[in-house]
């Protein structure tokens, strides 16, 4: 009975030791698990804060992207309006280009006619230059002849002046002779009047 009692007590002691050891191991395991969970929880909270910050930044970027998209849509509408206006301007420009090309063709024809007229005028100018050169030569000859005539006229004027002086001298001499002749006639008449009887032929 004592042997059985001892065996039972020893078994209980072993069971009790195993139970205590299991409880301590479980406690240590749970303690480590709790510490791991706390660490993981801290990491998750940190990641959560980072994710919230990233989410806030992403929402800000999304809002900016929406605003940018709105601006792009407005720019697109404006660009479409500009394209429509440019298309209208392009059609108008094409029409103006066509009109300008037609005007250019007409201008080329006018230019060709003007060139022909210019060539004709150039030939006429050359002819006139030749005539002008001939006239200049003729003018030079006439000027030389006129100079000779002026010299001749100057000589003739000198001769006329000499002749006028001679005529004036002769007129003075003639007047003097007429005065002397009148005086002689008066004396002859007086002498004839003084003669009585037959008078000489000079008194007749």
From TrEMBL:
The residue ranges flagged as biased composition, category Low complexity, are 90-104
Segments carrying the region annotation (Disordered) are: 73-127
> What is the recorded name of this protein?
Chromosome partitioning protein
Q: What species does this protein belong to?
A: Haloquadratum walsbyi J07HQW1
């Amino acid at each position: 009975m004592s042997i059985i009692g001892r065996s039972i007590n020893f078994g209980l002691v072993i069971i009790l030791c195993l139970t205590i050891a299991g409880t301590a191991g479980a406690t240590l395991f749970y303690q480590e698990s709790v510490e791991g969970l706390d660490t993981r929880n801290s990491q998750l909270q940190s990641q959560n804060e980072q994710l919230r910050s990233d989410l806030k930044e992403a929402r800000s970027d999304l809002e900016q992207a929406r605003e940018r998209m709105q601006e792009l849509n407005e720019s697109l509408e404006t660009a479409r309006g500009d394209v429509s206006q440019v298309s209208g301007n392009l059609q108008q420009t094409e029409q103006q280009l066509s009109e300008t090309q037609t005007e250019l063709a007409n201008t080329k024809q006018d230019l060709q006619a003007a060139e022909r007229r210019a060539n004709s005028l150039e030939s006429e100018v050359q002819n006139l230059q030749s005539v002008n050169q001939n006239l200049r030569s003729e003018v030079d000859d006439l000027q030389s002849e006129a100079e000779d005539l002026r010299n001749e006229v100057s000589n003739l004027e000198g001769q006329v002046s000499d002749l006028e002086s001679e005529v004036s001298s002769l007129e003075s001499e003639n007047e003097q002779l007429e005065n002397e002749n009148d005086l002689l006639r008066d004396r002859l008449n007086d002498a004839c009047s003084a003669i009585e009887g037959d008078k000489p032929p000079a008194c007749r």
